[in-house]
């Protein structure tokens, strides 16, 4: 009640100040005249009475001021006045205002954007309960090869790990499998994840709607049920709860939807892989009988085994528990005995891969840029403070307190940074939108990137922090000091002096230190990228169109049907005008065992990527043939042998020729009924190694076979044509003409896929380079400012030097030398900073060491050149000073 | 002879005002003169502090104000004690008496 009334009256006073003033005036007038009357009644003359009253009570204005400033609204008014003054002052210097707002806005905006990405990936953690204890399990052999455990191995682990519950809380197995659903224009492809009982409990997630599986639903032979993802729920059902209980034809099997997982839950969900987040989860037991991939111990499918470590147990104990079981299994299944080691990887490390170091690097880089822009604006404000020294001195002389002036200046800075904060937030929205768009599919959980409350809070804190960092120093300097000296001095004397020049020089040195550190980072990434780009690919990557097709089910379920479709598409695209050749290549991303006679029994068999290809593959990619022969069209009809690459050939035999040697591989398509059956044929040819998907790593051993021998359920195609990009529409038409129901798994493009590996991706390299360029520009502007300022300050001295006969060159040299002193100081510090932070970047570099000589020489040279240029410009102006004018000034 | 400075004995000024107005509604100068007369010039009130105190008490609902013609036929703002103001005065009188008694005892020993 009391506060309320106080508030109302205060607000009324604020809004209708003139009414309140009139009241106050009338009341005081009555008060004073009554006092005068009282004196007159005691016999004083009216004039004498008025004099007495004034002497006793002070002036009416003073009394008014006491009343005015006594209430809370007075503070509001004074702050409002500060703001009004700040707006007017800033409005009078539009260039300064715009430059400062843009500089700070860019800094705040980009750091907020980077923060929200880093927050999603590094800080907020994964959407699973206590995700630090979740580990992915791999089996490893003595050669350091990894594989994911097969389903039978998982089942043995699960059965035997039970007694030892302290190290491991639980295990789960997940297998991904593609399926299609009828869509508005043809079937759409999705990923289903088959999960073992207790999977959701292990991850620590509950259904958002409905429920997860009941024990009855996870028994073999139970009718099909599914839990769907939030994204699928949104896309397919428009987030309508009617989805629960509805029936979905998953690969033509009627499946009842029993639950919806919360937004953000996704597993498996891997960065930079071809795995999409699953649309739905189903009990693995239902598929166990039908899928060969779930039955074979030696064949590892597209799957993951996850363990949750017990409370207080570290991964060493988890590994020990599993390895003990693995050794028992080795005795039972001797053919798997060489997979004798178990490796656990934290689930976050697997999901985010090299995104993490890249993000740490980005975060550090962006903070540098933000600090640089702060330093620059501080520098400008210091300069402005000097220019306004006389104005402020006048105000001080008229009675403004030091705190009053500091508050005034801070208000100005606050207005600047608040505007910059708003600009920055808008920018951050745009940037995060762009990242979400470009990172979708490469960064797990990218669809959930937004400027949320945490990011907005970050922006606010960054803005306030910036205001303080930027404002305090100039405000304290400008408000303090010797008023009389400033009032007396002229324009030149009003400027700070040696102390201030040193302060601003230090700021410039700091800027150059940051800029140098960033430049070295960018230089290393560019160097690494250059080396990566010059790795010989082993084939001609120019003018190739690549695409991938997924033939719809069930029309092409039979291998013969799919083979006929592939042949037609090869013919259709191959006969397009200007197309020189067209080829198909299928195959698993995971390697398969290659067995051969005479291989020592105690050594694990070599592994190779398995590629069913068409006859034109070699010609289309322009891969050199090393020995023997490549497949002919006849081989496609009646296969008689394998072609292998050089790397596999070298692994198989140490000397002599491998041509004619019989090798055995196992059918690798998990979707086919004959999955895992051996094929034995002689080697008929050897081709050169190529980097098909990844430049950074050594080419893998490969084995090729005719695509008709094992018809891969989906297929990659490559088409060669001069001016390839222009042929893309014709290729799309040719595919649709063959069968309109066929969907693209990957749309036709001429983009090289060899940079797909996340090591120093071009994206990261260009961002860091952009940051470094910004930093250099900011530092250069800062240096220009300090040198120009120094010149202005010393124009009289320069004038005298010139009058005494100093040459133009010697004046320029004098000024530049002084600027360079700060730059060199900064460069030394920056070099040390780069050394100290080199750990951040090492994992992102390809064949480039952080002590790369070219970078470490080139970057400082660039820095010095920029520094010389940006201090030369004001120096030349100084040299042109008219000595007479300079000395006569003031 | 002391000018009441609001920030030193704020509560005292408020109490003096409430006490003065408890007799009858009065305008600012009337209150000031009454305080001066009754304290025989010990307390002299500065008009700014007095009006500020009025406004504050008015915002606290201790006083009501209205414009009326005064004895000399001029418009003046008259203040009147509200019920809340009266209660506050009683409370303050009690605590004041307690305090004064305590201090007096302390000084006598």
Helicity range of the residues of chain A?
A: 40-55%
Beta-strand proportion of chain A: 15-25%
- Describe the sheet with the most strands of chain B: 3 strands, antiparallel
Let me know the average pLDDT of chain B.
83
Q: End-to-end distance of chain A, in Å? A: 62 Å
Helix/strand-derived category of chain B reads: alpha+beta
Main CATH class of chain B:
Mainly Alpha
Major beta-sheet overview of chain A: 11 strands, mixed
Across the major sheet of chain B, the strand order is: 2-5-4
- The CATH homologous superfamily name of chain B equals Winged helix-like DNA-binding domain superfamily/Winged helix DNA-binding domain
CATH-derived architecture of chain B: Orthogonal Bundle
Furnish the topology, listing elements before pairings.
The complex is a heterodimer of chains A (890) and B (109).
Chain A: H1 2-15, H2 17-41, H3 46-57, H4 60-68, H5 72-92, H6 94-123, E1 134-140, E2 146-147, H7 151-161, E3 168-183, E4 186-195, H8 199-203, E5 209-210, E6 225-228, H9 230-237, E7 247-250, E8 253-260, E9 280-283, H10 285-288, E10 303-309, H11 315-332, E11 341-346, H12 347-352, H13 355-387, H14 389-397, H15 402-439, H16 453-479, H17 483-488, H18 491-494, H19 498-533, E12 544-550, H20 559-574, E13 581-585, E14 592-593, E15 595-596, E16 607-613, H21 617-621, E17 625-628, H22 633-637, E18 642-645, H23 646-652, E19 662-666, E20 678-687, E21 702-706, E22 715-720, H24 724-738, E23 743-749, H25 762-793, H26 795-803, H27 808-836, H28 839-842, H29 853-879, H30 883-888
Helix pairs in contact in A: 1-2, 1-5, 2-3, 5-15, 6-13, 6-15, 6-16, 7-11, 13-16, 13-19, 13-25, 15-16, 19-25, 19-27, 19-29, 20-24, 25-27, 25-29, 27-29
Chain B: E1 2-3, H1 10-23, E2 26-27, H2 28-38, E3 43-44, H3 47-59, E4 63-69, E5 75-81, H4 83-108
Parallel strand pairs in B: 1-3
Antiparallel strand pairs in B: 2-5, 4-5
Helix pairs in contact in B: 1-4
